[in-house]
Design a protein that fits this description.
The complex is a heterodimer of chains A (about 120) and B (about 110).
Chain A: E1 3-7, E2 11-12, E3 18-25, E4 34-41, E5 48-54, E6 59-61, E7 69-74, E8 79-84, E9 93-101, E10 107-110, E11 114-118
Parallel strand pairs in A: 2-11
Antiparallel strand pairs in A: 1-3, 3-8, 4-5, 4-9, 5-6, 7-8, 9-10, 9-11
Chain B: E1 9-12, E2 18-23, E3 36-40, E4 47-50, E5 64-69, E6 72-77, E7 86-94, E8 100-103, E9 107-111
Parallel strand pairs in B: 1-9
Antiparallel strand pairs in B: 2-6, 3-4, 3-7, 5-6, 7-8, 7-9
Classes of the chains: A mainly beta (about 120), B mainly beta (about 110).
Chain lengths: ~120, ~110
């Protein structure tokens, strides 16, 4: 059974960079059939797609966040990562990593989520 | 602000059939892009409920069904059960601003 687990600091200061890693177990991140995505959810609000990355390094991002987002893949560790720069309180959210089908683009496996609070 | 609009809330009594709409436009659902649906219980990660408009992943009860027509999609829950009380989100692809995945605004289903 595929499992994803987010890890990283739960508190980030304003203007700094948020960094999260997603560790994939029970399957290979190098599969050609999938992208690996990040989705966030501010407290009490809806879901927002941040971006997705292919194991080969191809990326696509939400245009509203593109200037501040970077993602990467480490196939040797079966991990992928998210960096979001110049954060503000508006970036406070639960951040989910998820597997995304490369054909239909649905997210079929999700991590449990990591709450990241932006505060000084 | 999402480009896919859902009603904020829907309610029903056990056993009833309820439906949740997901209204988009010509740049997403109306362009023929697939719609997927997720169920989210409080404090939990979303769970894929319907993919490709009307397909259920293994393990999802056949009480859940999806459909799409024009610029809208719909999720129906027949035989509503207490455990169906959750938030539901639609998702599709929108090409207006390059390649973008978009989620709906979300609908809270309450079982009365």
């Amino acid at each position: 059974q595929l499992q994803l687990q987010e890890s990283g600091p739960g508190l980030v200061k304003p203007s700094e960079t948020l960094s999260l890693t997603c560790t994939v177990s029970g399957g290979s991140i190098s599969s050609s059939s999938y992208f690996w995505g990040w989705i966030r959810q501010p407290p009490g609000k809806g879901l927002e797609w941040i971006g997705s990355i292919y194991y080969g390094g191809s990326t696509y991002y939400n245009p509203s966040l593109k200037s501040r987002v970077a993602t990467s893949v480490d196939t040797s560790k079966n991990q992928f990562s998210l960096k979001l720069s110049s954060v503000t309180a508006a970036d406070t959210a639960v951040y989910y990593c998820a597997r995304q089908g490369s054909g239909w683009y649905y997210f079929d496996y999700w991590g449990q989520g990591a709450l990241v609070t932006v505060s000084s | 602000q999402s480009v896919l609009t859902q009603p904020p809330s829907v309610s029903g009594v056990p056993g009833q059939r309820v439906a949740i709409s997901c209204t988009g436009s010509s740049s997403n659902i109306g362009a023929g892009h697939d719609v997927h649906w997720y169920q989210q219980h409080p404090g939990r990660a979303p769970k894929l409920l319907i993919y490709g408009n009307n397909n259920r992943p293994s393990g999802v009860p056949d009480r859940f069904s999806g459909s799409k027509s024009g610029t809208s999609a719909s999720l129906a829950i027949s035989g509503l059960q207490a455990e169906d009380e959750a938030d539901y989100y639609c998702q599709s692809y929108d090409y207006r601003l390059s390649v973008v995945q978009v989620f709906g605004t979300g609908t809270k289903v309450t079982v009365l």
